[in-house]
Amino acid sequence: MGSDAIAIELTEDTEVGFQAKLLPLELPRLYTEYEAVRSRFQVDVQDLSMLTNFNVGRPTIAALSADPSRLRSLLGFSQWSYLQFVPSRYGRSHCLTAATDCLLARIQGILMPERRNEAKELRLHVAALTSLQDSLDDAYASLTPETLCASQLLGLHALLNPSEGATWANHTRGSISLIKHRSPSRFKHDFDKALFLAHIGPIVFDSLMSHSRCYIAEPEWMELYQSLDTGSDTLTERSSLAISIRSLMIRLPNLWHDIDSATKGPGLFDEKLQTSLNFRCQEMHQALVSWMEDYKTYCARTSVLSPSDQELSVRRELYGTALECLIVVKRLFATVSVDQSPELESDVQALVQSLLDLQKQPGPKHSWLFMGHEMGVTQGVLLTRSQWQCFPFYSSPRERKLAVRERYIDWVEKLQPRW
Prior knowledge:
This protein has helices at 33-41, 58-66, 86-89, 94-111, 118-136, 145-159, 165-182, 190-210, 219-226, 240-264, 271-301, 309-336, 341-360, 368-382, 385-389, 397-415; strands spanning 6-13, 17-24. By secondary structure, the protein is mainly α. The protein folds into two domains: 38-213, no CATH class; 229-419, no CATH class. β1 (6-13) and β2 form a beta hairpin. α10 (240-264) packs parallel to α12 (309-336). The radius of gyration is 27 Å and the shape is globular. It starts with 5 loop residues before the first strand and ends with a helix.
């Protein structure tokens, strides 16, 4: 019997009566394993690609905790993400499959609360954690992109559970360790690179909050990040403008770490070290100013075009990021260059006002995703404005230095919980 399926249709012939006619048999289309699970949960993990955005972090958890329905605002936007590679790998990796099931159940519970099944969510979560741990305990499996993906999927699950803020931080640090353990040479394919891209933001913000060095600033990691540049004329997460501003932000934790260590320790009185830090601040400041010029040039060059909502969203996000970084760098600059402090603080207040004005303007419906960091920076500055605007005269250089330390520490303490 042939392999081709057939059907028989009876047709009427006026001369010979009924006769059989062979027709191809139309078989029902078979669902892939992912299509089947997507149909069961009625949600698609790919719709949440914006949750792999650079700015996703603690402010995201706070925003979703205040209003879980905000998740819907992400559904109309997308970006290049490892989530688009999940369907083709679903069913091939146990830990990735279990983590996907766990995340889909959580998304369904938020978007369709009437269908939420907490017992099922818990069961799937436990199964996913167990499967991930089994993969991490295996020397080979721990290095696969599927294991890293499962870790990041469970990180998204924690992100969508406001009560699990600490769990999200643990998943983030776990993924950071996995990425570092794999080394840049293992990120060769698009799936690997998308996993790397999704975790750059969390790595940077974790380093900023802990005032620790950021290993992605090392040359081999920076080379990997910059290789993601598509060279496209359309502004996306992988365009030159996006890569360049975030490359500067990747370098910021190392500068801040060194200034923090010097300001809180004996380096505060080391003039040679202070001069070196001053020079590094000038370099970073000039790089940010140059980026702003490049951004304005790009906007002017494309002004005759009608940018898509997607591009306008990326523009708004990147411009806000640049303002944030300039504010922080100017405050760091004023910490190691007290003589220029009044002028620098005047610039800081002007930038804060620009950022506040920007936040009042109509923006994409998912702007809450990146405005949390912006608001943290502006609030940290406004709460310490008086100490930085009115720096009194001190009778001795030592007293002056100690006052610099005091106002710096106060600013950092006000900023940390909000950023």
